[in-house]
Amino acid sequence: MGTAGCSPSPRLRALGALAGATLLFTLWLLWQFRPAPVRVPAPPRTLLVLIWHWPFADQPPELPSNTCTRYGVAHCHLSTNHSLLASADAVVFHHRELQTRRAHLPLASRPRGQPWVWASMESPSHTHGLGRLGGIFNWVLSYRRDSDIFVPYGRLEPHEGPAPPLPAKKGVAAWVVSNFQARQRRVQLYRRLAPHLRVDVFGRANGKPLCASCLLPTVARYLFYLSFENSQHRDYITEKFWRNALAAGTVPVVLGPPRANYEAFAPADAFVHVDDFGSAQELASFLAGVNASSYRRYLAWRDRLRVRLFEDWSERFCAICAQYPHLPRGQVYWDLKAWFQA
Ligand SMILES: *[C@@H]1O[C@H](CO)[C@@H](O)[C@H](O)[C@H]1NC(C)=O
Ligand SMILES: *[C@@H]1O[C@H](CO)[C@@H](O)[C@H](O)[C@H]1NC(C)=O
């Protein structure tokens, strides 16, 4: 009892503890909501992409510093200067020149950890020498959807406003072909179609080459265009579909990967697939007998979509920078041949 007067009552002690807790809580709150320090973002580093050999050209094009900004990609420098190998953020090797041995891999002077990109827009049927390229490349740039840098030949994009006018039609079916070989499926199909359907054939194979600017206006006058790929492979849907047919304003009759694969790229009713018919004769009579209302359905996509073509190698290479932050690190294509031929 004698000490009771000196020590604080339990009530007072409780109040003191409460005050302490409140003070701590207030300090914590102040700390939580302290003004964020002003962070000056580091200026984005410009990436250097070295193109070891320009595709299909011994003389690379001019690559002004705004090459990639024209395609909406900033901080990306493309160069073909081999002296920059040591400082390149990625080096691109286009397959054709490796295949023909016009270009050689600088394996001995490859900086440690430098990402190397294998690039090709050709199908596996026209790609050779992959067996010796295993364990070298980190990223693939191609038309295959599962590429690290996916660069389709074309794409449909949302579009508002009136569709471009349709040219007047003067014939049923056109085909442009420069490489005509009996073993190709497209040639076999054409030969089975021709007895039942008039197909106007243009191109070098037929002695009727079309100048670059004549092709689209010429094929646009037909209801259908034979978008027959030179070989049939997953995702291999080329300018024969995007440019010669869809962009021209004619309906593609496709021979390529299965229908479901095309439907990953375009509306199901934007094209005629040869697999939808039991025979070439059935296909021919369908094409010849189409009426105005069913034909119009094939063009309905034009009211809401438009074709965007990707034809420029610079644009494809700039895409490496656009995707650079998300590209997988430390990945190696140990068996590039198996991957590409799968
Ligand atoms: C290539 O790069 C080197 C090193 O930066 C430079 O000295 C040389 O002038 C460049 N060559 C060309 C053709 O631009
Ligand atoms: C047009 O063709 C479609 C499909 O073959 C058919 O269903 C439709 O009745 C035809 N329309 C006219 C007006 O002939």
Automatic annotation (TrEMBL):
Superkingdom per UniProt: Eukaryota
Domain Fucosyltransferase C-terminal residue range list: 167-339
Pfam families: Glyco_tran_10_N, Glyco_transf_10
Record-level GO BP terms: CD4-positive, CD25-positive, alpha-beta regulatory T cell differentiation; ceramide metabolic process; embryo implantation; leukocyte migration involved in immune response; leukocyte migration involved in inflammatory response; lymphocyte migration into lymph node; positive regulation of leukocyte tethering or rolling; positive regulation of neutrophil migration
Catalytic reaction annotation: an N-acetyl-alpha-neuraminyl-(2->3)-beta-D-galactosyl-(1->4)-N-acetyl-beta-D-glucosaminyl derivative + GDP-beta-L-fucose = an alpha-Neu5Ac-(2->3)-beta-D-Gal-(1->4)-[alpha-L-Fuc-(1->3)]-beta-D-GlcNAc derivative + GDP + H(+)
Keywords, alphabetical: Glycoprotein, Glycosyltransferase, Golgi apparatus, Membrane, Signal-anchor, Transferase, Transmembrane, Transmembrane helix
Pathway: Protein modification; protein glycosylation
Main enzyme class: transferase
Gene3D superfamilies: Glycosyl transferase family 10, C-terminal domain
Glycosyltransferase found in the keyword field: yes
Domain Fucosyltransferase N-terminal per the UniProt entry, residue ranges: 46-154
Subcellular location: Golgi apparatus, Golgi stack membrane; Membrane
Transmembrane domains' residue ranges: 12-31
GO CC, one annotated term: Golgi cisterna membrane
Keyword Magnesium: no
Sequence similarity: Belongs to the glycosyltransferase 10 family.
Annotated protein name in UniProt: Fucosyltransferase
Organism (species): Mustela putorius furo (European domestic ferret)
Native organism taxonomy: Eukaryota, Metazoa, Chordata, Craniata, Vertebrata
Gene from which the chain derives: FUT7
